[in-house]
Records
---
Amino acid sequence: MHPDSQYTHADNAAVIFNELTFRSLRVKNRLFRSNISGQFDDYNGHGGHARLNWEEKFARGGIGCIISSFTPVSVRGRILVRYAMIDNDDKIPFWREVGNRVHAYDCRFIMQLSHSGRQQDMGGVENLFNKGLSSTNKSDYFHGLLAQAMTKPEIAEVVEQFAQGARRARQAGLDGVELHGANGYLLTQFLSSGINDRTDEYGGGWEGRARFVLEIVRAIRREVGQDFHLQMKINGVDHNDWLYPWIGKGNTLDETVKICTMLLDGGKGVDSFHISSGSTFPHPRNPAGDLPLNDLRRWYDGMLSQGTRAPMNYAIFSNPILGRAFQALWRWRRGKVIEGINLDYARAVSEEIVKIDPDIRVLCTGGFQHADRIADAIRSKACDGVTMARPLVANNDLPDILTRQNGPEKECTYCNKCLLNDLENPLGCYDFSRFDGDSFEERYDRMIKQVMSVYEPPTFQ
Ligand SMILES: Cc1cc2nc3c(=O)[nH]c(=O)nc-3n(C[C@H](O)[C@H](O)[C@H](O)COP(=O)(O)O)c2cc1C
Ligand code: SF4
C-alpha cells in the first residue's frame, strides 16, 4: 500500500468486498475472474472434468463472478481445439454442471459467447479448408491468417448462432453472457475501422461497423428476454497499428464511447461493458506483460502451418538480434503501467454511459492484483469492478488474500509464460521463479504439480 495513502486496508477491503448489482445480476464482491482457460476439453467441443476443476478452484478462492473463456458459438468460430463450445443443445448439460459447481460458493458464472472470425489460431480438422469468416478479405496482420468477407446470409447465420448460444446459456442456469467484442476476434473485425473495409451497410462509419453487433444484441434479447445479464467486452482503443504503424490505427476512444452508447439500444440492450484494449490477441497491451523469447520460440512452431506470415515471425523470434528487437518493440508499445492499464478507457466509457443510464456497469481488465489499486479504481468511478486473469492463475485464492492484506506474497510477474504455454500445454503458472524449493528439480516439480492439479482426481479411478 502506498505509505501516503489516506485509506487503510480495511477501507480498501470495504470497497472491494461490497456487493455489486447489475440490472439482473447480483455479485457478492467487485472481483471478477477474467476470461482464461486452457485446452482442457474434448476435441469435439464437449466440456471435460479438468475444466470443471479449473472453474471451481477460482470460486473456492473467493471470486465473486467467473467470466468463462472464449466459448465458440460454432465450430467455424473456434480459436483452438479442446475448448468447450456452446454450438448445440447437447452442450447444455455440461455448462449446467459448471454453473452448479461454482454456484455452491455463491459465485456467479457468465459465459463469453465468441467467434474467432479470421483470428483462428488452430481451427482443427473441421476448418482445414476454411478461411476465417470476417468483415474483410484481408488476412490478419500478425500471423497472416486467411479471411473471407462474410456475405449477408452468413452474417444472419452468425447472428442467430450468438442468439442460440445465449439461449443455451440461460437454459443451463448460468447467470449471463458476455459478447467477445475485444482483442481482434470476429466482433472486433466488424467494429474496428482498422480492419473493416466493407462498403455495404455493415461497414463505413462507426454506426455501420457496429450494426452487426447491434443485431446480435437484439437477437439475444429476443431469445432470453430483458432479465438475463448481457455484457460486452470491448476495446477502449484498438491500437491496431501499435506494432505495424503503416496499417489503420483502428477505433479511437471517442468511437468506442459512441458504439457503447449505441449498444445500450435505448435501455433494451447491454447491461454492462468489460473494457480491454488491443485489436489482436496477443497485443502488447493485452495481456500486458513480457514476451518471453524462449517460450515464444518453443511454442510458436504450432502456428507455422496456420498463417502466411508465421514462418517469417518464427524466423524473427529465433534470430538472437531480431528476436530481441521485437521483444523491445513489444515492451515499448506496452508502456510502463501494467496494473490498471485500461483504467482511463474504462473511465471515459463510465462517465458517458452513466449520464445515459446510471444502472449500466463498467468492468475493467488489466493487471489488477493489489487491494489499494482496485479500491482506488472503484472509488474514482473509473469502473464498478475489476476482472483478473493471470494474477488469479498465479494465486487462485487472491480474493481471500485481499481480505487480509494488500497483495499476495508471490505476485504474478506478468511474464506471460502461461500465455505461450497455452498453445500446447495445460494452462497454469509457468513462472519457475515463483515456486519454492532447494533445487531446480524441487521447484520444477512444484510448478508442474500446480499445473497438473486440474486433472485431479482422475476422471476414472
Ligand atoms: C492464457 C490466456 C488466455 C486468455 N483467454 C482469453 C479469452 O478466452 N477471452 C478473453 O476475452 N480474454 C482472454 N484473455 C485475456 C484476459 O481475460 C485478460 O483480459 C487479460 O489477460 C488482462 O488481464 P490480467 O492482467 O488480469 O491477466 C486471456 C489471457 C491469457 C493470459
Ligand atoms: S506464468 Fe504465472 S507469473 Fe507469469 S504471467 Fe502467467 S500467471 Fe503470471
Note: The chain has one domain: 9-291+337-455.
---
Amino acid sequence: MQWTLTPRRERANHNPVLVLNGMPGRGPAETTAHAGDVVRLDATGSTDPNGNALTYRWRHYAELSGGFRPVDVTIERSDTPKAGFKVPGITNPSFQIILEVTDNGEPALTSYRRIIVHAAR
Ligand SMILES: [Ca+2]
C-alpha cells in the first residue's frame, strides 16, 4: 500500500465536463414542449480532462416532476449521448431529466446536469 495522500495533480482523476443541449456550465437547462413533442436530449461535446472514456445515462425523476401522480416517460437511447423522449398526452407540469456521465478513471467520477422540460398548455 502506498501512503501518498496527494498524488501529483496530473495523475489525479477529474470529473467529466458536460455540455447539455449545446450549453456548457453546470446549471440546469430549460425548455418547453407540448404533448406529443419529442424532446431532444443531447450531451455531445462533453469531454473528460483526462481523456477517459465516458458512459452516459439519462433518467427521468417523476417524483420531482410535480403534479398529482406524475407520469413516467420512457427515454429512448438513454445510454447514449443523444437521447430523447415523447411528451405524453397527460402531462406533468414539468419533466425533470438528469444526465449522468461517468468516466473510467480511478476512481470513476460522475458529473450531473439537469434539464427541466416545462409542459406547454
Ligand atoms: Ca476523468
Note: The mean pLDDT is 90.
